[in-house]
């Protein structure tokens, strides 16, 4: 069975003071190749832990990740990762950053150059390719991060709040870019976000997680990502279903937050 | 308890010195403020600027509007040389800028000798004050009339001399003759009287001590003039000092620093990497590094001399140790400072451990290592000079230490200035290399 299976994932770790934290409990997700999943939830619900386990940076206490029928035990190039910020190598130019994955594989200079040039065209940074990454704006840096991830031709792209540090306008443009890349490359994408709107816009499937223990609270199948591919994202937001779903999820998260607060005071 | 009293006494002495210096410090600050106001006035008169920073209304407290004023730097440096020249009577400055110098030339004063019966007689003493080192004969004077006879003497400038004026008189102390006045002003033993060109004091036994005025200028043995230092620089550069040329002295110091620093880096950087990458190595070396780091390298000099003697090996071991801990700690914090997301990203892009070392950890640690290298070079330079002060055959520190024993203050000053220039140049060079090698520093 192709695609990415997350099977009964649990994560529990001990704190130095003797207590233990159940970060994830029995999380199962079955993702077909080419699906775009966004994961939403209040802070502390284990979203990032989930992503780190899928990426292979953490070993779960129980459960398994299977990608293309192979168990995942550690990080690997078939699962690319886009971080929030600061994961670019500032000692390399834009071109060298994007070409990092192919270079690690020992790819020859010519095909590597072709891949890099192509991807820089896709993300619209062709004229900045010899610049140092710290000379670019935040939005441009995230475009480099996307291109760097794509250059390695991963099967799955994991995005940990990739647009979280961008200003609202840049963020909107980048959301369009992510949708475009998803449609053009047909990659499986897991996107973690704090923003309900972003999760709705970019999630073909949307999972809302609840904290303590981190678990799947509700799952949606949404039409908006598909709509957004050909359209202005602002038009999508005007859709009546968009507003109702947003309100529903927002009040769901508010309830969870209140529960946490209540639990604390009790 | 005794220690506390002793320290209190020392503290009082220090405080008194500071209090004594307050007028000079206040004068200097007033001078700074005066030049500041004059300069801002001139600037306002010249070309009123309307760039962004001159239009700021809030400048006090705005850190970005405070930049080093070039004019102030120039005036400050020029002033140091002007003061130096003024207080040493430098030929580089026009005479009117000199502070009063020591009295030189001929001066006279009269003394009054009184016999027990009350009869008095005056006689004149002619004093020739000459620069130290010149050979001069006593001025020839006529004996004059009366029982007190005229005298003459020579004194080197900045010196004083005793004179028994009664020796050539017709009457002596045996007759009960005593000196009762100088230039008509009464004098008794242990007191002094001002004369035209200085002062005359009387010893408890009644001998006169003539102290020509020294003025405000410094004697060359305390502070030689700028041109004397410059001239000495030329002499030492061509003729050398203590069997070595100036280039050899400085070259040996630099050689020790560079070899010690490179050896320290060769060992220290891998050590720091090991400590940054392995818990076992960190645990193993942390106590050693953390203990050795606060030990000033200078405190190791005696041990190094006992173990390795005063030759090159000892010096280089000392500088190696000075650089080692600094470089190890810099490399360690360079490795520890790598953002985990960068390492994660590299793993996700398919990099092996070795590739992560080569393409992520090492480049990421370079800015810290360069900062460490700058500190280490500074410490090594300071340590080598100190080590040479203690014992060395050649070297900048040895040169000034030997010169100070012979009171060649000009060589000492020249050496200090050269040591400062070299230290400053090393720092500038390291900064330049840093800009070229790690342009991404602080941009992560």
Report low-confidence residues of chain B grouped into runs of 5 or more: none
Shape designation of chain A: globular
Gyration radius of chain A (Cα, Å) is 19 Å
- In spatial order, strands of the major sheet of chain B run 3-2-1-5-6
Computed CA radius of gyration of chain B, to the nearest angstrom:
33 Å
Mean pLDDT of chain A: 86
CATH class of the largest domain in chain B: Mainly Alpha
| SS strand fraction of chain A | 15-25%
**Sheet of most strands of chain B:** 5 strands, mixed
In the CATH hierarchy, the architecture of the largest domain in chain B is Orthogonal Bundle
The N- and C-terminal alpha carbons of chain A lie at a distance of 47 Å
Tell me the name of the CATH homologous superfamily of the largest domain in chain A. P-loop containing nucleotide triphosphate hydrolases
Helix content of chain B: 40-55%
Q: What number is the mean pLDDT of chain B? A: 90
Helix-strand category of chain B: alpha+beta
Specify the number of helices of chain B: 11
For the record, the count of structural domains of chain A works out to: 3
Quaternary assembly: heterodimer
Structure description:
Chain A has helices spanning 47-55, 94-98, 100-104, 109-122, 138-151, 168-185, 196-202, 224-230, 233-238, 240-265, and strands at residues 4-14, 20-31, 36-40, 62-67, 70-71, 79-82, 156-160, 188-193, 205-210, 215-221. Chain A is an alpha/beta fold and 266 residues long. Chain A has three domains: 1-78, P-loop containing nucleotide triphosphate hydrolases (Rossmann fold); 88-154, no CATH class; 220-266. Chain A has a six-stranded mixed beta sheet with strand order 6-7-8-3-9-10, with helices on both faces. In chain A, strands 2-1-4-5 form a four-stranded antiparallel beta sheet, with helices on one face. In chain A, strand 4 (62-67) and strand 5 (70-71) form a beta hairpin. Chain A starts with a strand and ends with a helix. The relative contact order of chain A is 0.17. By secondary structure, chain B is α+β, with helices and mostly antiparallel strands. Chain B is 55% helix and 11% strand. Chain B has eleven helices and nine strands. In chain B, the strands form two sheets. In chain B, strands 3-2-1-5-6 form a five-stranded mixed beta sheet, with no helix packed on it. The longest helix of chain B has 44 residues, at 2-45. The two termini of chain B are 56 Å apart. The model of chain B has no long low-confidence stretch (mean pLDDT 90).
